[in-house]
């Protein structure tokens, strides 16, 4: 996966065993339930693995996050 990441410039990998998302660029796991751009991929993988939609947890932003352009749970 690392070689593919470097050759094709894909920095994310989804593990089908536990549906975790690894970022090669930042060298850490990403939370697919918090990062909205990852949710559709995570949801599709979850449905393919378990046959039903995932139980997404609610995400709340602090006031500091709202000032930086984050959406509050009331906005969603």
Secondary structure blueprint with pairings:
Blueprint: H1 2-8, E1 12-14, E2 21-23, E3 28-30, H2 39-50, H3 63-67
Antiparallel strand pairs: 1-2, 2-3
What keyword list fits this structure?
alpha+beta; three-stranded antiparallel beta sheet; 76 residues; disordered C terminus
Describe the structure.
It comes from Salix suchowensis. This is UBP-type domain-containing protein. InterPro entries: Znf_RING/FYVE/PHD, Znf_UBP. Strands 1-2-3 form a three-stranded antiparallel sheet, with no helix packed on it. It is globular and about 35 Å long. It has three helices and three strands; from the N terminus they run αβββαα. β1 and β2 (21-23) form a beta hairpin. It is an alpha+beta fold. Helices cover 32% and strands 12% of the residues. Mean pLDDT is 78; it is low at 65-76. The N and C termini lie far apart (35 Å).
Helix and strand sequence = HEEEHH
- Poorly predicted ranges: 65-76
Q: What percentage of amino acids are in beta strands?
A: 5-15%
How much helix is in the residues? 25-40%
Summarize the biggest pleated sheet.
3 strands, antiparallel
Overall mean confidence score, pLDDT: 78
Total beta strands = 3
Evaluate the radius of gyration.
Answer: 15 Å
> Strand order within the widest sheet?
1-2-3
**So what's the overall shape?**
globular
Distance between the termini: 35 Å
Instruction: Give me the number of helical elements.
Output: 3
């Amino acid at each position: 996966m690392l070689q593919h990441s470097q050759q094709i410039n894909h920095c994310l990998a989804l593990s089908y065993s536990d549906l975790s998302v690894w970022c090669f660029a930042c060298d850490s796991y990403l939370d697919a339930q918090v990062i909205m751009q990852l949710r559709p991929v995570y949801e599709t993988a979850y449905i393919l693995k378990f046959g039903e939609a995932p139980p997404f947890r609610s995400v709340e932003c602090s006031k500091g996050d709202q000032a930086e352009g984050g959406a509050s749970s009331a906005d969603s």
